[in-house]
Amino acid sequence: MCGGAGTRLWPSSRPSRPKQFMPLSGNRSLFQETATRVASLCDNGRLVVVAGVIHRDAILQQLEALGLDAQLILEPEPRDSAPAMAAAAAWTVRQSAEAINIFVASDHHIPDHAAFEAAVRRAAGAAAEGRIVTLGVAPTEPSSAYGYIAAAGPGLAAVTAFVEKPDRPTAERYIREGHLWNSGNFIASAGTLMDELARYAPAVAEAAIAGLPPLPAADAEVAANPGADLRPAVLTLSDGFLAAPRISIDYAVMEKTERASVLAVDFEWSDLGAWDSVAATGEGALGASLFEDSEGCLVRACDGVMVAALGVRDLAIIVERDAVLVCDLARSQEVKAVVERLKRASPRHLDFTGGEEEGLGEGAARFSDWLRLKALPVWSTLGQSANGAFEELLSLDGRRLDAHRRARVQARQIHVFAEAGLSGWAGPVAGAVDRGLAYLDACFLRSDGKVRTLLTPAGESADETAMLYDQAFVLLALASAQRAGGLDCEARALALRDQLLADGPSSGGLREGGDQPWQSNPHMHLLEACLAWEAAGVDPGWAALSDRIVALALERFIDPVHGCLLEFFAQDWSPADGEDGRRVEPGHQFEWAWLLARHARARGSAAGLEAAHRLYAFGRRGVEPVRQVAVDAVETDGLIRSRRARLWPQTEWLKAALILAETDEGADRDQRLADAAVAQRAIWLYLTEDGLWRDKRLEDGGFLDEPAPASSLYHLLGAWMQLKASAPTLGWTGADRVRLD
Question: Which of 72, 432, 536, 667 has the smallest set of CB atoms within 10 Å of its CB?
Answer without folding.
Answer: 667
